[in-house]
Amino acid sequence: MSEYPDLNYTVTDKDVLYEDNHLIAIYKKAGWIVQVDDTGDLSLDDMVKKYIAEKYQKPNGAFLGVVHRLDRPVSGVILFAKTSKALDRINKMFKERQMHKTYWAVVRQKPRKMEGKLIHWLVKNPKKNITTAYDEEVKGSQRAELNFKVLGFLDGYYLIEVDPITGRPHQIRVQLATLGSPIVGDNKYGYPRGSRKKSICLHARRLQFVHPVKNEPVDIFAPLPKDGFWDKFESFKK
């Protein structure tokens, strides 16, 4: 049985944050998986393929390329390519760090610094699906960098803006935990309890890039989840 029995596994028009002939950006709900895994739950890429095929009456199905991922308990903007040309170019842009991603995270413990850069070397254990951060390079590790800034304090919680420079598995989660500030709900990385909804307070807030075909600036925002908790932070600056 799925860990998310109450989740609706259907993409509709209201989930689309941006779309043209080459790209489509979707509002990913916490709990949706981007690609098929061993849970057997329907994946977001399959949901989006179905959405495109039905919307544009494509009886043979639709092409869709996955260009990046978000962890299952994370919400926010995620981008897909609708053409092979766009997929190749977007993949190159991610590799060359030409995609500017901004995340928002909520923590309970005040960070030791209010802003700065974090640099660690990360090692992922695929069997346990957990990443460990080291202060120095170790065998099998990947360098991870991000910039962060505390945006404010509200009702006992701190809102942090994170701009990852690299894109490593669980990077933001484990690096914030090293500050002594695990993300709310993320008991995998030190928060004392998990969320009843099995989500964590990490949200892919914004994606900025130059369109790979049109050569125009694209700036996509994802609104915060309307869950009675995240909503209160919507008044903070974008």
UniProtKB/TrEMBL annotation:
InterPro entries: PsdUridine_synth_cat_dom_sf, PsdUridine_synth_RluA-like_CS, PsdUridine_synth_RsuA/RluA, RluA_PseudoU_synthase
UniProt keyword terms in alphabetical order: Isomerase
Highest taxon above the source species: Bacteria
A matching Pfam family: PseudoU_synth_2
Molecular functions per Gene Ontology: catalytic activity, acting on RNA; pseudouridine synthase activity; RNA binding
Domain Pseudouridine synthase RsuA/RluA-like: from-to ranges: 22-177
Entry's family note: Belongs to the pseudouridine synthase RluA family.
Record-given protein name: RNA pseudouridine synthase
UniProt source species: Pedobacter puniceum
Lineage: Bacteria, Pseudomonadati, Bacteroidota, Sphingobacteriia, Sphingobacteriales
